[in-house]
Amino acid sequence: MRSPLIFIGLVVLAVASVVRAQQPWGLPLAELEARATKDSLDPDALYRLALGYARKQRWDDEGRVLHAAITLNPRYTPAYLALSFEPFQRRPALEREVRKGKVPPPWRDSLVEAGRLLHKAFLIDPLSELTPPDVDWSLEQRAFAMLDVALAMRFGRRPLDSLPTWVLWYQGMSAARTGLNDRAIADLQVLLRRGEAIENDSIVPFPVGTNEYRYVLAVLYDRTERDSEALSLYQQTLAADLGNFMAHNRLARLYRDHHNWENAVTEARRAVEANPEDPASERELGQILLGAGRLPEAETVMREAEERNPRDMGTEYVLGVILEQSGRAGEARAVLERFLALAPAALYGPQISDARQRLAALPR
Questions:
Q1: Which residues touch 239 (CB under 8 Å, ≥6 apart)?
Q2: 262 inside domain
């Protein structure tokens, strides 16, 4: 019987050929550098440049630019994923050495760091993947159709409960990444009910177990506005792992959306405590405090977030709104004008429009 690793490898190669053959990834490096310089506050521009450096095997430059993208946006998952893959780019034999348990000592620390980065990307967005920021998702859907056919040929149309864990995991995650939420939810529900650690298969680069299934399913419920089910699973996820800062953040947003401000603030504060190195969690706490009408607290938090990441234009925008709503027109004007001068239009279109309206309404 063909092994799961060989089988899924063939499918992945087919999928990659579809996407790679039809994506305009090959802009000249000089043009990518010019775009990144022009849009220096846009992590997408930096990420595209990093892909350009990777094509030239300029690994140090790739890593430097990816870290710069993360500095701009600590939630920028493509950069974490690319960094986690970098040791395997530098040393093509490393994947085989990992499988055989014969990793050379100089590369062991790199692998540990790669696992940490991969796990952080999973927490931030378990449905993210290593694609260019302007990927054509119709190609992803075609790739999923190829996977669907291949799985049907390998396993037939067996009931979900009878499929191997690795099939359900890859099938469910692929469905989720192409917007087939109902199919993804069905697969993850089976995995969660099964409640066992995933099979020991080298195609999964970090251990996936019951709580990971629970978290992904919660995100899918959240995405499809099944709020009560999402809320329950986020709470269960956190009962097993209080360090999942993004589960705290996602739960805080759910409470916020239902105007349950006390619980929203509590969960947002827990997110900051669980990952104090992440200024984005501080910004989200400040936004929730703003929504709750707790303006002095919101300003304090946003000032701290601004100090920690002065290049985050999202923080500037929220701080300007707080100052405007606090009746401090002069300070609000200065902050909002700085935001308008620096914020990349591709990332902050709605906020830019709102900031202009607020500026126009401020007293002179």
A1: none
A2: no
Q: What is the pTM (predicted TM-score) of this model?
A: 0.81
Q: How far is CA 300 from the centre of its chain?
A: 27
Render the burial of 286-309: b for 16+ CB within 10 Å, e for the rest: bbbbbebebbebbbebbebbbebb
DSSP secondary structure of 193-227:
HH-SPPP--TTSSS---HHHHHHHHHHHHHHTT-H
Contact 252, 238 (CB under 8 A): no
Residue 90 in tokens? 């530098």
DSSP per position, 29-64: HHHHHHHHHHTTT-HHHHHHHHHHHHHTT-HHHHHH
195: which 2 tokens? 């409640």
Say which CATH number the domain at 231 has.
1.25.40
What CATH code is carried by the domain that includes residue 46? 1.25.40.10
Domain of residue 232, residue span: 135-241
Query: Do 169 and 222 belong together in one domain?
Result: yes
Domain count, the chain: 2
Same domain, 151 and 117: no
Do residues 127 and 193 share a domain?
no
CB 87 within 8 A of CB 63: no
Query: Could you list the pLDDT tens digit for every one of the 364 residues in the chain?
Result: 334 443 444 344 344 443 443 344 568 999 999 999 988 889 999 999 998 998 899 999 999 999 999 998 999 998 998 898 888 888 989 888 888 888 899 999 998 898 899 889 999 998 876 554 444 445 555 555 656 656 666 666 667 777 778 778 888 888 888 788 998 999 999 989 887 444 444 444 444 578 889 999 999 999 999 999 999 999 999 998 999 999 999 999 999 999 999 999 999 999 999 998 888 999 999 999 999 999 999 999 999 999 988 889 999 999 999 999 999 999 999 999 999 999 998 889 999 999 999 999 998 7
